[in-house]
Amino acid sequence: MKKIKYDDYKPQMGILIDVQHPEDYLNNPTLNSVNIYSDKLLLNYKTLLDKNKSYYIICNKGHLSQKVVSMLEYLGYDVTQVLK
Fold this sequence. Notes:
This protein is an alpha/beta fold and 84 residues long. It has helices at 22-27, 38-43, 45-48, 63-74; strands at 2-5, 15-18, 33-35, 54-58, 78-83. Helix 4 (63-74) links the parallel strand 4 (54-58) and strand 5 (78-83). It is globular. It starts with a strand and ends with a strand.
């Protein structure tokens, strides 16, 4: 599993997706990210993601992002966990 620190992320690297719950995202949004809750992303990955793009997955504590990155990596997507 690829991992980087949030301070090392640059928008030109790929799309930053914050997978925390929408209510938590409203209270603590991640700069330069789009919010797609982990369950929604994993249930709809075929319509939400493109295998030709790179995605950077973040959450507040790292547990959800680790789960999402593991699953999407298994499915053949270019994903990296971003650690706060």
